[in-house]
Amino acid sequence: MNEHSEGRGEGRDRNGPQGTMLFQRGELPEAPPEPAGTEVEESDLPVLVGVAEPFKQQRLLMRPGRHSLGRQSDNDIVLQEPSVSSQHAWVINEDGECRVMNLLSTNGTWVNGERVHEATLREGDRVRFGGAEFVFHHRDHAGAGLPLAGRRPRWRVWLAGGAAVLVLAVLVRIGLEVLA
């Protein structure tokens, strides 16, 4: 019996179609959930920042764990772009170290212009999922001024809160003047 006919044994061939490495569910890393009560500052999280339209300046925060990425709506990170496969890749954050893993995507996952099956990301790496391109940062240094995908930017929240406080102060003052 040759190593390829052993099926799921140690010596099996791990290359699938188009040279993609094959994994079984038990071989895939699962990051433990964050302990209850631990808040992670967004500025301490790794981030992918979009460099080209339609994702320019969008920030994809990489919380601990495995994040599915693709065009299909049931992914953790949805990229509505025709060149992105429905289930394109995983981005895995284990203790602040991030990896990308391609999932049989048609147009591939690329790091710094090189097509990859799996790669550990380093500061400033350019990561492309089909035609959607991002830059990787270990920490979200400039996050305060950039839109966070799927959420309102912080400055808008602060602005709305400040406006509400100002309106409330004016109403209180008017009420006090009426009573006097």
UniProtKB/TrEMBL annotation:
Biased composition (Basic and acidic residues): 1-15
InterPro entries for this protein: Cell_Proc_Reg/RNA_Proc (IPR050923), FHA_dom (IPR000253), SMAD_FHA_dom_sf (IPR008984)
Keyword Transmembrane helix: yes
One Pfam family, short name: FHA
Membrane-traversing stretches: 157-176
Domain of life: Bacteria
All copies of domain FHA, residue ranges: 67-116
Keywords: Membrane, Transmembrane, Transmembrane helix
CDD domains found in the cross-reference section: FHA (cd00060)
Keyword hit for Membrane: yes
Segments for region (Disordered): 1-44
PANTHER family: NUCLEAR INHIBITOR OF PROTEIN PHOSPHATASE-1
Protein name: FHA domain-containing protein
